[in-house]
Automatic annotation (TrEMBL):
This is Uncharacterized protein. Keywords: Membrane, Transmembrane, Transmembrane helix. The chain crosses the membrane at residues 25-43, 50-69, 117-136.
Length: 142
């Protein structure tokens, strides 16, 4: 194995590490978002206004959405690099025998399924808390 092959294999390994790191980060910020529900308890106890509590939760949900899109960008980027490295080592017959992913790239802006779930969680939280805010007294529009 020459230096180029060693370099490509190290880079291949690092791309998977980066993908894993970005997935973990998004789940961690989801945890922060869920923890922010404590603001509702503070509002119900009268420590902070409900407007502030809902605003903080919505802002944190938007922060989660930004992390999801950022992580998805890095996922797609790294997957392209991984596929290109695989093309250096695999043969065209391996498209059938081993795996077909290195043959062509995913759609440019396709969102990975696990990241889509996190997006839906964040959008759902925004919707629930905005409805909660609108439907509680004195704003009983529901």
């Amino acid at each position: 194995m020459d230096r180029r092959d060693e370099f490509l294999l190290k880079m291949y390994e690092q791309m998977f590490n980066d993908i894993d790191r970005h997935h973990k980060i998004v789940w961690q910020v989801i945890g922060v978002l869920v923890g922010s529900f404590a603001f509702i308890a503070l509002a119900e106890k009268g420590f902070i206004p409900i407007d502030i509590a809902v605003a903080v939760i919505v802002l944190l949900a938007l922060w989660v959405i930004a992390h999801v899109y950022d992580s998805n960008y890095w996922y797609n980027r790294n997957l392209v690099i991984i596929s290109n490295i695989e093309r250096q080592f695999l043969q065209s017959s391996d498209l059938k025998d081993i795996q077909y992913y290195f043959g062509e790239h995913r759609d440019k802006n396709a969102v990975q399924t696990s990241l889509k779930i996190q997006l839906y969680i964040a959008y759902g939280i925004i919707l629930v808390f905005l409805l909660y805010h609108v439907c509680i007294p004195p704003n009983t529009y529901c």
